[in-house]
Fold this protein.
Amino acid sequence: MFSWLKKFKNNSLETDDLQKKFIYSLLYLLIIFTLHITAMVSWEELRIDDAIWLTFTTITTVGYGDIQISSLPGRLATIILLYLGGIFVLAKTAGDYFDYRSIRNSKQIKGKWRWNMNNHIVLISNNDDNIPILYYERLITEFQHTEEYKNLGIQILTQDFHDGLPESLQKLNITHYYGKGNKTEDLKAVNANAATIIMIMACKHHDQLSDGNTFDVLHRIRDLNKDATIIVECVDDVNRERLKQAGANITLRPVRAYPEMMVSVLRAPGSEEIIEQMFNNQDNKYQRVNVVIKDQEWSEIVYRLVKSNIGIAVAYISPNDKIYCNPNGEDKVIAKGLIIMTINLPDNKTVETVLNSKTA
């Protein structure tokens, strides 16, 4: 009967008190209904269905008049139970319910409502970094379009959106809580103890001191949840090992322009190192090589480059400048250039010689 109340928990004394008042009023109404129905069956000799009908139409002041109360005990019971008590209690119960709904809706909008969520995703951010709404939109959309995560609920713990989530985020069916990750009470409010994935964003993506705040949040989360997969943003590479020892499963440099990367590394742990190497000049990097290729199988191109220790071909550029990434091995390639992941930075002539040699 009251199962809908279990959907929420620990939502301030104000809403808890209204819940209790509402439940007590319902129980009181149930007693009144039972007594009056019993009286009508006993003193008016009505069938049970007629007694129920008479009780409900009377207490709601509809009063169809299709069933009359003729005995003195029946009339007294109706006056005492319904007129003097039941109608007032029914009005009070309705008022308590609508007050509860109004307060609940206000708290939900302002991020002060504690949702009872399990096996969900928690995104922890700090408004010091002014994370744009578009970042949240892309990150959440990527989760919802990924098979492994599309059925998981998502909640944001942040001090943004105190006036309510923007319409674009509301459409994504997520929730938020107004708070900070370095407060254990706020972590409990978003059910961090029951989350499947927790993502900690750097307080300031350009400030090395942010890693200290991240470590604090991470430590608090691990005290609550030993099993969740935790991905953290690490500003200074020196702190990566420290964060992993503290319980982070994945560490990644802050990437504000491409949030989809966060989901990619969750699906393939370890790929963050490969992705980051692509953006520096120290290890593997993408290199464009302009070579003409005519009707050659993609698998043969990849094999020849690897065999010659040049690198791994990941895409080719067609004559009309369209990029084809990771084509099928048997595809016949007509191209004017290749994208190669390599350390050796080959020149065009070397690659052309390897691809056109008669021996593999």
Observations:
- The first helix runs from residue 12 to 43.
- Confidence is low (pLDDT under 50) at residues 1-9.
- The first strand starts at residue 121 and ends at 124.
- The two ends are 75 Å apart (CA to CA).
